[in-house]
Amino acid sequence: TMMVSATSPIAQNQIGLSAMDAALCLSLMTLFNMFGRIAFGFIYDKLKGWNSLLLVLVINGISMLMLTIADSYIYFILCIALVGFSFGGAASCLCTNG
Questions:
Q1: What are phi and psi of 32, to 5 degrees?
Q2: Are 76 and 29 within 8 A, CB to CB?
Q3: Cβ-Cβ contacts under 8 Å for 90 (sequence gap 6 or more)
Q4: Burial profile 27-57: b = 16 or more Cβ within 10 angstroms, e = fewer
């Protein structure tokens, strides 16, 4: 949830987006969060328990590191999409791992 509130200021400060474009980034991140929940439901069925959780945590770590060096609009969108996807996947994996 912290990333949702921080996405717009990061986009505005790090790559100089307008508030409107930063809001679009936030919307895209939440959209990919939904895709991550759905996708990791299927991935969890294939990889089972801890393997799927490990995968989502690796994707999350890599995407957050990528986000720190984002300097263009397209690259920032890619990073935000991966962050949202992994956050959604984490919610899926954590709910099923209990």
A1: -70, -25
A2: no
A3: 36, 40, 53, 56, 57, 60
A4: ebbeebbeebbebbbebbeebeeeebbebbe
With cut-offs at 50, 70 and 90, classify the pLDDT of residue 98.
Answer: low
- Mean pLDDT score of the chain: 90
Encoding tokens for residue 45? Answer: 């069925």
Q: What is the pLDDT of residues 36-47, one digit of tens each?
A: 999 998 998 898
Read off the pTM: 0.87
CA distance 56 to 87: 8
The token duo for 3 is: 């990333």
Three-state SS string across 68-97, please?
Answer: HCCCCHHHHHHHHHHHHHHHHHHHHHHHHH
Considering the chain, what percentage of its residues have pLDDT values greater than 70? 96
List the structure tokens of 37.
């929940």
DSSP class of residue 48 equals: -
